[in-house]
Design a protein that fits this description.
With 254 residues, the protein is of the alpha/beta class. The protein is 41% helix and 15% strand. The structure holds nicotinamide-adenine-dinucleotide (NAD).
């Protein structure tokens, strides 16, 4: 067990990918704070069933007071913080020209500002022990401009990721490399995993026409994303920082 006795916070831990990450870390021996805006007790129960301690902390990652409380409660319960995985996020679909300003703001507040706030709050307890692993969930949509032919079929684009989502995830990638450098000498690594289409509620309406473009020939699973996260969260990866690790079935090799 590579993470025996370590403590992790997983935002969005009640969701599909977040839940898989919680279990992957628990299987390696970590105690887990399941932080989500919706109840996380089902995942917390599964972590406990694996023999690890779990906290279920209701958190809106877009609110700094919530985020500070999330870290404080974790430290109170477990006394340390080794791993932060920023999974919380929302999807957003449609074309650029008609994207409402309020939707732009909603997506940035959760998908980008939420990652900023959580990373910032995790630095002090990690620095105190000169050890930390931060893993942010980005997206292929932060790299590839999304749907390769949004002009072809308006109905298709109404179900495909939009520029607000892609810009927020590109922001997550940039934040990751900036913070990686800032913390490089402190024993704290900062990396991202950038998934392609993964089978979760978020992609339930993804058109078959877009799924058919994935070279591996299928969508990915939450467990496949969690595997990459668990790798980057492990102690042996101290020389990997500022990496954006693609888990996208070959959709956008770069
Ligand atoms: N599913 C995919 O194909 C895919 C691809 C690339 C990236 N991602 C990213 O992976 C992450 C997880 O997505 P998922 O597919 O598991 O979806 P999901 O909806 O199952 O999980 C998202 C979780 O985030 C939580 N959340 C939403 N707003 C929140 C907030 N303000 N504060 C705290 N928690 C909040 C939700 O309650 C949910 O549990 C997201 O960041 C998403 O953008 C998903």
């Amino acid at each position: 067990m590579k993470l025996a006795g370590q403590v992790a916070i997983v935002t969005g831990g009640a969701g599909a990918i977040g839940g898989a990450v919680c279990l992957a870390l628990a299987r390696e021996g970590a105690h887990v704070c399941v932080a989500d805006i919706v109840p996380g007790q089902a995942v917390a129960g599964q972590v406990a069933a694996l023999g690890q301690r779990a906290l279920d902390v209701r958190t809106d990652v877009g609110r700094s007071a919530d985020v500070r409380a999330m870290v404080a409660r974790t430290l109170e319960a477990f006394g340390r913080l080794d791993i932060l995985v920023n999974v919380a996020g929302v999807s957003s679909v449609g074309n650029f020209e008609t994207l409402p300003e309020a939707e732009w703001d909603r997506v940035q507040a959760i998908n980008l500002k939420g990652v900023f706030l959580c990373c910032q709050a995790a630095i002090a307890p990690m620095r105190a022990r000169r050890y930390g692993r931060i893993v942010n969930i980005g997206s292929v949509l932060g790299k590839n401009g999304g749907n390769p032919r949004p002009w072809l079929d308006r109905a298709e684009q109404l179900k495909a990721g939009n520029a607000a989502y892609g810009a927020a995830k590109a922001g997550v990638h940039a934040l990751t490399v900036f913070l990686a450098k800032e913390l490089a000498a402190e024993g704290i690594t900062v990396n991202a995993v950038a998934p392609g289409p993964i089978v979760t509620g978020m992609t339930a309406a993804l058109p078959q026409t877009l799924q058919a473009l994935i070279p591996v020939g299928r969508m990915g699973t939450p467990a496949e994303v969690a595997e990459a996260v668990a790798f980057l969260a492990s102690p042996g990866t101290g020389y990997i920082t500022g990496e954006i690790l693609d888990v996208n079935g070959g959709l956008w090799p770069d």
